[in-house]
Design brief:
mainly alpha; Energy-coupling factor transporter transmembrane protein EcfT; about 75% helix; transmembrane; 2 domains; transmembrane helix
């Protein structure tokens, strides 16, 4: 099964997937009620400490997954600086980083099979048919797996563009990025068909 689970073992790997996903949901909801830079920074510090429990190598791995978000962080900060609301921008950035870092922590320490099992059991409790449960679980797996891959490929496209010209890429990369996504989708569909599809 496709997975982004870290090979570096941490205490979190042994925690059940259900409580981790429930805790992540509660944490993500709670941080959007935070007010003030001090509280937001404290929560972000707690997330960093949670990573450090797994060791420095694991923390560096988690930091690497935050790199694609830094572009959005810069845009948010520049915008709020321009409108004279820097404190509000800092709080938003800290909320964003804390939420994404926490989600990455759960993803890195939870097997995909375990997460999908939780999703299917939850859907079963509300009466969703088995075939629909499996399809929905597979769609979640594909989104989790391919989102970072597409982000990485988008970054490579930007780097390739910058190597050829000093002009900003902008909309010119939309078509090649879309073609990359379509190509990945076709290859995935062929792989699923080769394995018998989704019943």
């Amino acid at each position: 099964m496709i997975s982004l689970t870290s090979e570096r073992r941490t205490p979190y790997h042994s925690w059940p997937a259900g409580p981790k996903l429930l805790g992540l949901s509660a944490f993500t909801l709670a941080i959007f009620y935070m007010n003030g830079i001090a509280l937001s920074a404290a929560v972000m510090g707690a997330v960093i400490a949670a990573y450090l429990v797994g060791g420095l190598a694991f923390a560096r791995e988690g930091l690497r997954f935050l790199r694609p978000v830094l572009v959005f962080v810069a845009i948010i900060l520049v915008w709020h600086l321009a409108v004279g609301r820097v404190a509000e921008g800092v709080v938003i950035v800290l909320r964003l980083l804390a939420a994404i870092a926490a989600a990455n922590l759960v993803t890195l320490t939870t097997r995909m099979e375990d997460m999908l099992d939780v999703i299917q059991r939850t859907l079963a409790k509300i009466g969703v048919p088995p075939a629909t449960r499996r399809r929905f679980a597979l769609s979640v797996a594909l989104v989790v797996r391919f989102t970072p891959v597409l982000v990485q490929k988008g970054g490579l496209l930007v780097e390739a563009w910058r190597a050829r010209t000093v002009k900003r890429p902008g909309w010119r990369l939309v078509l090649p990025f879309a073609l990359l996504a379509i190509d990945d989708a076709e290859q995935t569909a062929e792989a699923l068909k080769a394995r018998g599809g989704v019943m």
